Amino acid sequence: MSELDPYDYRLPQEQIAQHPLNERVDARLLVVDRRKQSWETMHIRDLPDLLSQRDMLVLNDTRVVPARLVGYRKRTGGKWSGLFLEFDSNGFWRILGKTRGRIEAGESVVLLDPQQQPAAELVLVKRLDDGGWLVRPSATSTPWGLLDRIGRVPLPPYIRGGEMEANDCERYQTVYAEKPGAVAAPTAGLHFTESLLESLADIGVQRHHVTLHVGEGTFRPIQVQRLQDHNMHSEWGELTDPVAGAINEHRRNGGRLVAVGTTSVRVLESAAIAAADRDGGLAAWHGQTSLFIRPPYSFQVTDAVLTNFHLPKSTLMVLVCTFAGHELIQQAYRYAVSERFRFYSYGDAMLIV
Question: Please, what CATH class does the domain formed by 5-64+169-352 belong to?
Answer without folding.
Answer: alpha beta
